Amino acid sequence: MNDDFERLMTEATRLVQSGSLTEATAAIQRALGGAPAAARAPMPRDDAEIIDVEVRVIGEPVADPRAPRRANGESFTSGHFKNECGGRDYKLFTPAREDDRLLPLVVMLHGCTQDPDDFARGTRMNALARERGFLVLYPSQSQRANAQRCWSWFKHNHQARGKGEPAILAGIVREVVEAHGVDAARVYVAGLSAGGAMAAILGDAYPDLFAAVGVHSGLPTGSARDVQSAFAAMSGGAPSAPRPPRTSATPPTIVFHGDADKTVNVVNGERILASAGLAAQGDASRGSSAMGVPYSRRVHVDGRGAERGEQWTIHGAGHAWAGGDLAGSYTDPRGPDASAEMLRFFLQHPKA
User: Fold this and answer.
1) Of 14, 67, 133, 227, which residue is most buried, by most CB within 10 angstroms?
2) Is residue 170 pLDDT above 70, yes or no?
3) Is the dihedral of CA 132, 320, 258, 273 positive or negative?
């Protein structure tokens, strides 16, 4: 990232926090207008928004994702889906299978500047899938939709069932479920940052499709309607719009967030569970990862007392996937292991 761009985006965040929205908009426009041409794909101006953190260059994938299946049946292949709302590429990891049993599916939504290969490396979710026997789907945001590959969680027309990116993502999931031997009662979605915010939207919009949701360093549905309100919400300001209507209860949800996150304020983690109608039960339990990182874990229940949420607050942690691998971007290998804990939570909550 060039110095002028980083300086202008930092200034825009400060101006939003101080309530100077006109000046903040001007700073954002200057930042976007000054970005290197190679970093911008041709697109309408209102889609050239960057709602995340600094770019970090990651090496090429270890193996060609289009390579033929291994002899043992494991594969990591590319695909494309298109419907009336648009199209997106995706990657699908399938573990070796000894029989025709239906397997769970975990959908992983990357953050800004990331892609499926980077996110797979950083979260190590494919390694877990190989050990535990489930499929992993990595939808890919296109640079035509957003120059920095951010999911459009902050746009009003991408926050509800049957609209925009939620409809495209749900279509990809349904296609994979039908074609790849997936147990429809065990389909889960998780994401980081912009991907976490979109995962929350998918849980609200498609509770019939997703059995549980994982949000890492993300925001609740309806937090923003545009770029200005997105920066306000990320800084901890109140959501700019009411939550979109839901067809039924939000699926069980697990949240991870660092309390030193300077990109998305930790209050957003609390709001995700509160907006799902869940309440904290008792005091938080405390622990530390194998590398000594302290955290608090709090169980959340619905109105009937059923455990339907977990809130993990990682003390001193920033904007990064907890327990991730440094081979991927935005990871903190010190833990706790968000991938393993999300998987545990997911498998405890199949659809009834």
Assistant:
1) 227
2) yes
3) negative
Q: Model's pTM, two decimal places? A: 0.81
> How many Cβ atoms are within 10 Å of 291's Cβ, its own excluded?
11
Q: What's the length of the chain?
A: 352
The Cβ-side half-sphere exposure at 32, using a 13 Å CA radius, reads 22
User: DSSP secondary structure string, 44-90?
Assistant: -GGG----S------PPPSS-TTSPPPTTS-EEEEEEEEETTEEEEE
> Helix-strand-coil percent breakdown of the chain, rounded to 5?
30, 20, 45
- Please compute Rg for the chain using Cα positions: 19
More confident residue, 44 or 23: 23
Q: Does the domain spanning 72-347 belong to CATH 3.20.20.140?
A: no
Where exactly are the structural domains of the chain? 1-40, 72-347
Of 23 and 177, the structure prediction assigns the larger pLDDT to: 177
CA distance 213 to 253: 5
Q: In angstroms, rounded to a whole number, what is the distance separating the alpha carbons of residues 329 and 149?
A: 14
For the stretch 268-316, pLDDT in tens is 999 999 988 899 998 899 999 999 999 999 999 998 899 999 999 999 9
Q: Rounded to 5 degrees, what angle do the CA atoms 198, 324, 300 make? A: 55
H-assigned helices in the chain: 3-18, 21-34, 116-123, 125-132, 164-179, 194-205, 227-234, 267-275, 338-347
